[in-house]
UniProtKB/TrEMBL annotation:
InterPro entries from the UniProt entry: Endo/exonu/phosph_ase_sf (IPR036691), Endo/exonuclease/phosphatase (IPR005135)
Originating species: Streptomyces nojiriensis
Keyword terms: Membrane, Transmembrane, Transmembrane helix
Transmembrane segments: 33-52, 64-82, 89-108
Name assigned to this protein: Endonuclease/exonuclease/phosphatase domain-containing protein
Taxonomy, superkingdom: Bacteria
Domain Endonuclease/exonuclease/phosphatase: 121-322
């Protein structure tokens, strides 16, 4: 009588796919590389601020797209199942928990409680072929405040004419402007021009707004663009402009502040720390705004002090390469 030990072992392996494989590895001893990748993904999510910026501003580049690290979770999960590795499956829980802790709240249902102001922030694009249509689309969401960037001298009259009836108060400084249902006071330019840029570069505006809940300060800003270059993430001018804007906000005498603007990065980017350390980001809504065709990041921001943006979402596309962002804002008691 001959016993086919090898054959019965092969049949057992086929029958029990989560058992020992042909090389003698158990579900707990295989998949260690996948487990290491899961731990690395979790570490980058939790300790992203430890990634240095000294070389190519790698830290800022990572943080600008930090939520997309969550894509590692389904990829690693499927790989662990295919590999039949319990070690990898357990390790995948780490980046999943880290992502949920950082960004899960943005996916929760919107806070439907009371709010005091609705604001729209939109980079309308200096190549927008339909300024009038864009303005009418923004009016359709019935905001109290409309902040626009990339206003050109040729398109500005069209925006002013289309918005005049619904928004009798407005101010424009350079290429940024604010339209309001409520009276404006103490309108002034905010100098956020980085070193090396000429005098004609005006992208910062501050207005007092007399709301039924009292006066608030509203800032409209368009920070310099960033570029991926051979030397790395080119965010130097943007970071300098953010520092200047942060200093202006810090010096603001009114307690309640709303900042509306194209800040050319996400709120996780350390380059915006002069602003995000002083102002709060919305609690609900991913509201990816750029590029309009396939949005991958929210670089159009609504930040507040002594106020809460209880919800932020995008509006349908206009003639711009950005999507409009609208926020419902609750003002704190003054």
């Amino acid at each position: 009588m001959v016993v086919d030990v090898a054959g019965s072992g092969a049949r057992r392996t086929a029958r029990w796919p989560w058992g020992t494989d042909a090389r003698g590895r158990t579900p707990w001893t295989r998949g260690r590389v996948l487990a290491a990748l899961a731990v690395l993904s979790a570490a980058l999510l939790v300790f992203h601020s430890a990634v240095p910026n000294a070389v190519g501003r790698l830290g800022s580049a990572l943080e600008a797209f930090l939520p997309w690290l969550g894509l590692a979770v389904p990829v690693l999960l499927v790989s662990a199942l295919v590999r039949r590795s319990l070690t990898a499956l357990v390790a995948v829980l780490l980046p999943a928990a880290a992502w949920a802790g950082l960004f899960g709240g943005l996916l929760l249902p919107a806070d439907r409680g009371t709010h005091d102001i609705t604001a729209v922030q939109h980079n309308v694009s200096d190549e927008n072929p339909d300024p009038t249509g864009t303005a009418r689309a923004l009016i359709g969401s019935a905001p109290d405040l409309v902040a626009l960037e990339e206003l050109t001298p040729s398109a500005l009259p069209a925006y002013e004419a289309a918005l005049a009836a619904a928004y009798p108060y407005h101010a424009v400084e350079g290429t940024v402007g604010l339209w309001s249902r409520h009276p404006l006071t103490d309108v002034r330019r905010v100098d956020i021009r980085p070193t090396g840029i000429g005098e004609g570069w005006n992208r910062g505006l501050r207005c007092g707004v007399r709301t039924p809940r009292g006066e608030i300060a509203v800032y409209v800003a368009h920070l310099p663009s960033v570029r991926f270059r051979a030397s790395g993430f080119g965010s130097g001018p943007r970071d300098e402009s953010a520092r200047l804007l942060g200093a202006a906000v810090a010096a603001e005498e009114l307690e309640r502040v709303i900042l509306l603007g194209d800040l050319n990065s996400t709120v996780d980017d350390r380059g915006l720390a002069p602003l995000t350390s002083r102002l709060s980001a919305p609690r609900r809504g991913l509201a990816l705004s750029w590029p309009a065709a396939v949005p991958v990041a929210r670089i159009d921001q609504v930040l507040t002090r002594s106020a809460t943006a209880v919800e932020v979402r995008t509006l349908p596309a206009t003639g711009s390469d950005h999507l409009p962002v609208t926020a419902r804002i609750r003002l704190d008691a003054s």
